Structure formats: C-alpha cells, structure tokens
Amino acid sequence: MGKLVLLTLLGAGLALIGERLVAIRRRTNASREVEPVEPQNCHLVEGLGYGSEDIDVLPSGLAFISSGLKYPGMVNFGPDEPGQIFLMDLNEQNPRAQVLNISDSFDKASFNPHGISTFMDKDHTVYLYVVNHPNMKSTVEIFKFEERQRSLVHLKTIQHKLLISVNDIVVVGPEQFYATRDHYFTNFFLTLFEMAMELHWTYVLFYSPREVKVVAKGFSSANGITISLDKKYIYVADILDKNIHVLKKHDNWDLTPLKVMQLGTLVDNLTIDPDTGDILAGCHPNAMKLLNYNPEDPPGSEVLRIHNVLSEQPSISTEYANNGSVLQGSSVAVVYHGKLLIGTVFHKALHCVL
C-alpha cells in the first residue's frame, strides 16, 4: 500500500513537472519565429554594444539610453563593465551615442541601470530618474541633466520596502512616479518557480515623499510602464502574460483598470509616439531564446505599434521584426519625427529613418 501511494505521488509529481515545462514553453513562445519587417534605412548605433535596455526622449529630440544592465539569468556581453547612460540627438542626420559623465559623488562602479524616465520642471530643468540595481537590490536614482556639460549630477537615492525587483518607472511630478515590480521573489530559482506556477503577485506602485502605495496588482510580471499624452492613462506591459493593461489615473494617484490588450508576444518597455499618441512596444518574439542564449540561434527582435489605444478595437502593426541576425533581444523603441530608435537588453541599438 505504501509503495502504491509513493508511486502515485511520484507519477503525479512528474506529470505536474511535465505540464509546467510545457506551460513555460507556451508562455515564452519557445517555438515562434518572426517574419522579417525591416525598414530600408537602418544602421546599428556605434558605441552601444552592452545593451540599450530603456530609452526616453525629450521634446527637443535628445534621447537618454540606459546601458549595461546585469539581470539574473540573462546574458551580458560586458560583465565587468559598469552601467552607463548615453545621450543621442535624434535631430542629427546620423546621430551618435555619447556617454554622459556622472558626478563623482555617485557610486559608478555598482551602477546597474534598468528603466528610466525624464521629468522637466517649470524652468525647463531636466531630471533623469533611473531604476538602479546595485548589488542586485533596487533603488531609484535622481540625476540633474547638465546639457552644456553633457553630464549628470546625482541628487538623491530613493529606497523603500515596496521598491523591490523594480523594472521600469514613469515620472509624473517632482519626486512622484509610478514603478513596476516584475518579480515577487528576489531569488533567481524562486523566480523560475514563480514563472512556472504562473503566479500573479507583482504590482504597480506610486511613490511620493508623502505617500507610497500599491495602485494596481495581479500582474504575472509587470514590466514597462508609460503615460498617455494627456496624462490621464497609464499603460503597463505584463511581459509573461503577453499583454498591455490600460489604467485610468485618478487625482489621488490611484489607478482603475479599463482594458487589457493581448499581443501574442512578450512585451517589454512601452513608449508613446509624441505625434500620434500610439504606443510603441519593444517585444521579445521568443523569450526562450532570450533566457537560453545561443549565439548560433540568437533571440529575435520585434517592435509593435498600437493605434487608437482607447478605442474598442485598437489596431496593431509591426514596425520592425528581425530573427536576431541584425538585432537581438529588443526591449524598447522610440519614434521622433520620422526616426525610429530600437534598444535591446544586452545587444546593440538600431537607428532607422522611416
């Protein structure tokens, strides 16, 4: 009798493991390949060889780029290189990436930048907020941008018990922002368990010096976040559920869910087309290749545009798709007056004239 029970439990356990492995392959689109969609006038950006995970563009066309992210379970081409912030002027015909100097008061050796967001105050001073993972923890760093010197002056480090496993950020006022938590567990193996069991324990939080609170929850892996042009709606990418959530922002900073758009691809960072209000989504068509990196069969890249986001039937078009032969692991895309700039988790960046 005891052996029968043991064999039954063993069989049930093996069946569960097998079912979860199948589920992981499904969630990561392990069998998916993309058909190429590539604009004619594109070139790789010099100097960005260790990733360009997130990009934010000022109305003037200056683009800030976070580079050098070290993320658990992800390949890194510059493991001994500290993270950096680059600047590109998208008004230039052939823009180049320039490293921004950071003030000596900041610990640059442990700089591990992830999501970024800019904020401009009433006197047009520009501040850059950066999600940082020093020693694999999570902080938000506030920098002041000195345009003439092409440098960043570190002003403040923000830490909080709810700022755990932070992925992305969107600034909505002075020291006020929404941020996403992409994993509930901080241990790498437990995050694999979390993914395998399809837990929905991650969230979006609001931070201000007076109040810090969770304002949306129930995400499998809350990732990219951005705000609509009219500042009334927040858009959040759930990378493992392959969708984008539309949430209405209230005066007290709470968020109310309105709709969810399924995309069939793993959505990373989100940005807004300043001319149309469309969402640009940097996506991973096959995340299994991203997690199990093979240079002979690299992860591809995909950029989607979502038109008429708030309508009953938004339309989706592909701005860029490549099987990894040119660009690997796209995480973000921005557009500025007919220019397209695509960033990646650990690879290069691509600039296109549309």
Automatic annotation (TrEMBL):
Post-translational modification: Glycosylated.
Residues carrying sugar: 269, 323
UniProt keyword Signal present: yes
Domain of life: Eukaryota
Gene Ontology BP term (one): negative regulation of superoxide anion generation
Binding site for Ca(2+) 1: 53, 116, 167-168, 223, 268-269
Family under the similarity heading: Belongs to the paraoxonase family.
Protein name according to UniProt: Paraoxonase
Lineage of the species this protein comes from: Eukaryota, Metazoa, Chordata, Craniata, Vertebrata
